[in-house]
Specification:
about 160 residues; alpha+beta; Histone H3 K4-specific methyltransferase SET7/9 N-terminal domain; globular
């Protein structure tokens, strides 16, 4: 019986440690694992063009509605994003993965479509001003590889 109690107790601690806490320290800085939501307001009509197919039907968004909800999970260290951050569509399918170093995207960056297929992949390095970006089509096949300015890529990430 004691063995079962300890197994359940420590399992609960481990599971709880993986849940976002959204903690702000005494200095007002975000710390630890966070879950954040981003609401994108759009007006959708039959003639609308969506190059990245972000319009979809789920229990939280409507095709003819006015907003899309994205969820982001990752770590904050002293008020800035640190390490891998995962973004999800409102139905739970992975949308993007971005690695942060001192609050700036640095390292792996991947974007996925609404079915979870990879669309874009690149590796951002601190010292580079140009980033090589792989564009995918279909079931993970590389369609093209382009070079973009790092400043433009970062701007797109932050504006999203």
């Amino acid at each position: 019986m004691k063995k079962l109690f300890f197994i359940l107790f420590f399992s609960a601690i481990i599971l709880d440690a993986q849940n976002p806490k959204n903690i702000v320290d005494s200095s007002g800085l975000k710390q630890g694992l966070w879950k954040e939501y981003r609401v994108l307001y759009t007006i959708v009509d039959d003639d609308a063009f969506f190059p990245d197919d972000t319009v979809y039907i789920t229990n939280r968004t409507e095709y003819k509605g006015h907003c899309l909800v994205f969820e982001y999970i990752g770590e904050y260290e002293n008020g800035v994003r640190e390490g891998l951050w995962h973004g999800y569509y409102s139905d739970g399918i992975i949308r993007r993965i971005i690695n942060y170093k001192n609050g700036i995207p640095n390292g792996v960056l991947k974007y996925f479509d609404i079915k979870g297929n990879i669309l874009i992949e690149c590796f951002i390095e601190e010292c580079d001003s140009i980033v090589s970006v792989k564009l995918f089509c279909g079931e993970g096949n590389i369609c093209d590889e382009i070079k973009v300015k790092k400043s433009g890529l970062l701007r797109e990430i932050y504006m999203e």
